[in-house]
Amino acid sequence: MVTPLRTTRLVLVAVATAGLATAGLSAQASDPSPPVAPVRQQLPLPDERVVRVHVPGSEALYAMEDAGYDFTGQYERVPDGVVVDALLTAEQLAGLDEYGATVAAQVAATTASAPSAASAPAAPETAADADAVVVGRVDWFTTKGQGFLSVEAKTDALDGATLTLSWDGGSVEMPPYVDSGEYLYHRVLARVDGPRPDEVTVTSSLGGSATAPVTDWLYETDADVDRPGYEYGFVDGYLNPTEIYERLDELHAEHPDVTEIVELPYRTNGYQRLAQAVFGTANASRVAVDSLAWGHEGGNDISVELADPGVASSALDVTVDGDAITVHLATDAAGVVTSTAAQVVAALNAEAGTLIRAYTYRGDAGAGVVAPAPPTLLSDFLSAPNSVERGPFPLRALRIGEHRDGSKPGVLIIAQDHAREWVTPLVALEAAERLLANRDNDPATRRILRNVDILIVPSNNPDGAHYSFFDRAGQRRNMTNHCPLTGAADANARGNWGVDLNRNYRVGSAIDGYDGASFSCTSDTYMGPDKLSEPEAKNIVWLAETFDNLKFFMTVHSYGGQLFWQPGAYIAEGRITTPRPPLRDETYYWEMAEEILSNVKGLRDTVVQPGNVGGSSDVLYSSAGNVREDLYFTYGIYAFGWEIGGVQWNPETGEWDSGGGFQPDWPEAHQQYQEYASGVIEMFEIAADYAADQQPATTRLVQERQPDGTVHVTFEPSEPASIHYTTDGSTPTTDSPVYEAAAMREPGEVIVVDETTTFRWISVDVKGQLEPPKRFTVRVR
């Protein structure tokens, strides 16, 4: 068992200062006071709390992110915007009105209880100009003994329509899903208190109607934790990154025959900061000082005093005695201090520039007169124990498998891109623990080890995560301060630095005009100064380029209960997404998702709802420059993003309970890491199935004759495959037209045939295996 260093959240405890109101006199004073020992400056971080807010749409959401608002999770699309949890300061809470945002009432669910059939609105008679209604996904699932319908449908009415979902036993209105000003579809999660319906009907207020069969979402499966003798649940408490990687090294030492440590080439920038202080209260008279050395390498030993000389007509002067810097402020004929912030900054840089760098506050001209201050030690404000190294962190991956030579399909798992997501590294670590503990007693595990090449990076943001553990629990990004001295580079802004590692990649980047990432160095979605500016992102690209057998990828995040893939970003003007995966890959993603999430369900009946599965820009929001897009579009890797910690149905209250946030109480965290590790294990089994697949798909053409004499043609492959076809008699190739999805989140298109036509086609499955050419003549009578 892994013994944690600590199982409760740690927060920054600032060192109290004393005597700040009493300035000691310098040696220039006519009656000097005894030397004053320097004290460490106390600069508390702003108080923050999680508040559920309503934001009126994506445009406001992105504007608020640019302004530093931190949206943490539990996103819910509502007809007039987004309801989401946000980590807010008191100032941000007071500023919601500026963006049209409001504090939201607690949302019980994305569920609408169904009224009785008698109270359901009657469907209007179909008129000649009725709108066309298309039903997309119709999913049925149960959790904790309660049944639900998740239904998506759309209308072609340009001026909008009210859609109503009905089934044998009830009905409910379907809210429209509008994002970035574009109508996507209507969707609803409806509670069903009766038996599972076989079909549903969606009717429009404009007269359109469509009926569709109900399909089951998720399925009963023998979860890995239910197998006889299977060991699981290896972690007893939260672990910081130092502890995580120590355990990774121990696993390799315990199982050297099936593991190796892969040293990643780029070390992080480190859990380290320059030592700093800010003197003064009014911006015009503030002086900010940074050490040139890291705090732990001597910066924390430097002190600065702003001394009133206590005499008239004294000139501004700076003296340096070892690590002690004294600024003797200038005075006028009456002995009143006259030195401005700009003058003090210039004097400090001229006389103490080998130790420190001084600057005026956030670009201010510095025309205000400074106030004297006692000897003050600069500080890096870092509180981790000595067991946490302050310098660059050596990132590494644990590679697991009997054949680690590139001959087997590879799976890459990374976690904790976002520092405050404490459960996510435990998901990755638990998956590794299970593989190695069960290698001798579980046939399914042995099959994985024989047929899959696994790489696990359990904490891809160790610097930020250490900061989250020991200094500021809400830290999302890494710790790198890219703010200019004219911006928020001073110690008062130290809780707002860092790069969002999941916005630092190359495809669909903010630089290319995609939304959902910020250019502001204090935004929690800051993309960084350039694509791949951060070592943590460079390492993931290095893994993809070094291990060309990688076929599958999962980045584990929290919280919200989503599983998604491409497209992950869009340009808001016109809502232009990154390319949508072809029907083959979209189908494969859905198949994999259902397998992964069915295994998650096996532990405590947790259901990731189908409305939270799919392209992340379609079900959640745009996230420019995310890692999934880069790995899929650049290297052809099937790349998932996972938001663990979703809601749980509470049968006692009839509501959905929150997943507990980023750092849930340990009993909840203990359940979360185990159930989602089961999903990761299933992903390894999918890779083993991929390795075993030696047969191409087989595809059949399906024709349905219509009353108007036309024939509707669709293709049905035996497994996910790209179907290339011709209708002009030519031999199909992979350059021939491809059979596409009818629309977003819909199955294959319907080809309308109005004259006798011969179809020739081939198919290519996800392994690139080619089905021999086929042909079929569709005869129109």
TrEMBL record:
<feature type="domain" description="Peptidase M14">
    <location>
        <begin position="357"/>
        <end position="687"/>
    </location>
</feature>
<feature type="signal peptide">
    <location>
        <begin position="1"/>
        <end position="29"/>
    </location>
</feature>
<dbReference type="GO" id="GO:0008270">
    <property type="term" value="F:zinc ion binding"/>
</dbReference>
<dbReference type="GO" id="GO:0005615">
    <property type="term" value="C:extracellular space"/>
</dbReference>
<keyword id="KW-0479">Metal-binding</keyword>
<dbReference type="InterPro" id="IPR059177">
    <property type="entry name" value="GH29D-like_dom"/>
</dbReference>
<keyword id="KW-0732">Signal</keyword>
<dbReference type="Pfam" id="PF13290">
    <property type="entry name" value="CHB_HEX_C_1"/>
</dbReference>
<keyword id="KW-0378">Hydrolase</keyword>
<keyword id="KW-0121">Carboxypeptidase</keyword>
<keyword id="KW-0482">Metalloprotease</keyword>
<dbReference type="GO" id="GO:0006508">
    <property type="term" value="P:proteolysis"/>
</dbReference>
<feature type="active site" description="Proton donor/acceptor">
    <location>
        <position position="643"/>
    </location>
</feature>
<keyword id="KW-0645">Protease</keyword>
<protein>
    <submittedName>
        <fullName>Zinc carboxypeptidase</fullName>
    </submittedName>
</protein>
<dbReference type="InterPro" id="IPR000834">
    <property type="entry name" value="Peptidase_M14"/>
</dbReference>
<dbReference type="GO" id="GO:0004181">
    <property type="term" value="F:metallocarboxypeptidase activity"/>
</dbReference>
<dbReference type="Pfam" id="PF00246">
    <property type="entry name" value="Peptidase_M14"/>
</dbReference>
<dbReference type="InterPro" id="IPR057246">
    <property type="entry name" value="CARBOXYPEPT_ZN_1"/>
</dbReference>
<comment type="similarity">
    <text>Belongs to the peptidase M14 family.</text>
</comment>
<keyword id="KW-0862">Zinc</keyword>
